Amino acid sequence: MLSGFPASAGTDPDMQIRAYLVAIDGIPAEAVWRAAKLFLSGKVRDHNRAFAPSAASFAEVARQQQAVIARESRPPIEVQPEPPQPKVAAYKMQLLRQAANGSLNARRKLADMFPDNPLIARAARDAQETMG
Question: Which domain of life is it from (predicted)?
């Protein structure tokens, strides 16, 4: 990899290689290979392409690639489709729309249909008091 960066020709290659080996200790070879490939192809952002990466920068990109490999090896999450909801009858929707627009008659009909619903019952009761 060092030969791919001409401005790094003056550095001691043995010392540089040792520094890389210390920095990547414990990182899988596939991640190291991917990191080297990214640096050599110029795809690492904020890297001066004239110089070889520092051991720390190289290890950081190799760890990122290790995380990418781990993510790629996980099975995809299967999204379960939502169970179909029962359809509301058109006339009930029409009553609800009319009640929302202020129809007292629609409120009474809804209260008769859904006597256990306290909101509808209260709205119908309020409508009854307004009328009478």
Answer: Bacteria
d(CA 23, CA 12): 17
Q: What is the amino acid identity at position 110?
A: L
Q: What is the 3-state secondary structure (H, E, C) of the chain?
A: CHHHCHHHCCCCHHHHHHHHHHHCCCCCHHHHHHHHHHHHCCCCCCCCCCCCCCHHHHHHHHHHHHHHHHHHHCCCCCCCCCCCCCCCCHHHHHHHHHHHCCCHHHHHHHHHHCCCCHHHHHHHHHHHHHHC
Structure tokens at 4: 């791919």
Residue 124 burial class via C-beta count within 10 angstroms: exposed 0-12, middle 13-18, buried 19 and up: buried
Side-chain-side CA neighbours of residue 40 (13 Å) = 10
Owner of token pair 């040792």: 18
The model scores a pTM over 0.70: no
Residue type (1 letter), 19: A
- pLDDT value at 123 more than 70: no
